Amino acid sequence: MADGETLAEHPLSHLDASGAARMVDVSGKDDTAREAVAEGYVVMEPATLALIQQGGIPKGDVIAVARVAGIMGAKSTSALIPMCHPLPITGVTVDIAPQNTGRLRITARVNTTGKTGVEMEALTAVGIAALTIYDMCKAVDRGMRIEGVRLLEKRGGKSGEWRA
User: Fold this and answer.
1) What is the pTM of this model?
2) Could you give the count of Cα atoms lying within 13 Å of 142 in the half-sphere of its Cβ?
3) Alpha helices in the chain (DSSP H)
4) Assuming Cys at both sites, which of 40, 60, 95, 97 could form a disulfide with 126, CB separation 3.0 to 4.6 Å?
């Protein structure tokens, strides 16, 4: 908020009039088809990416495990993010692909039919997949970085479609 602004002048949906945290009541909203897509990157040494692609990481198939971890992350979002509603997720895809030398791009697409969007679920899927890649490869490359986690697009609900 800007200097001098009050909560009443700049309401945040997760705060009540006194500024206390609350979970937003969405019971009056209509169920609509909703979708969100997020992305992120894990940057690593080219040799680490080569090991991943050749199946040479001792902990196993990094891409397969990270994909499953991302799906599990999307399904667990409301347990991780305090004000997120538990949602009946109808679909999650997590794609992980090499980008240039030494970089994996993670994309997650999450769908539901419900009263609130799945942006946090898509972002969580990307974050958990990225952390799984880091965990599985840290013995080989401690200098890996997780970068660029962001929402790319969302559809559904009252606000309609949005693209980055």
Assistant:
1) 0.88
2) 1
3) 46-54, 62-75, 77-80, 119-137
4) 40
Counting as low any pLDDT under 50, the low residues of the chain are 1-7, 10
Query: Is 135 designated active site?
Result: yes
Task: Point out the catalytic residue in the list 25, 95, 135, 141.
Answer: 135
Strands of 162-163's sheet in order across: 89-98, 103-114, 32-43, 145-155, 162-163
Using the structure block, give the residue that is written with the tokens 């840290």.
138
pLDDT of amino acid 25:
73
How far from the centroid of its chain's Cα atoms is residue 75's Cα? 11
Give the CA-trace dihedral at 79, 82, 87, 91, to 10 degrees.
-70
pLDDT (0 to 100) of residue 5: 45
Closest CA to 134 of 65, 54, 37, 56: 65
Q: What are the residue ranges spanned by the domains of the chain?
A: 32-157
89 neighbors 77 (Cβ within 8 angstroms): no
Q: Which class does domain 32-157 fall in? A: alpha beta
Q: Can you give the pLDDT at residue 74?
A: 98
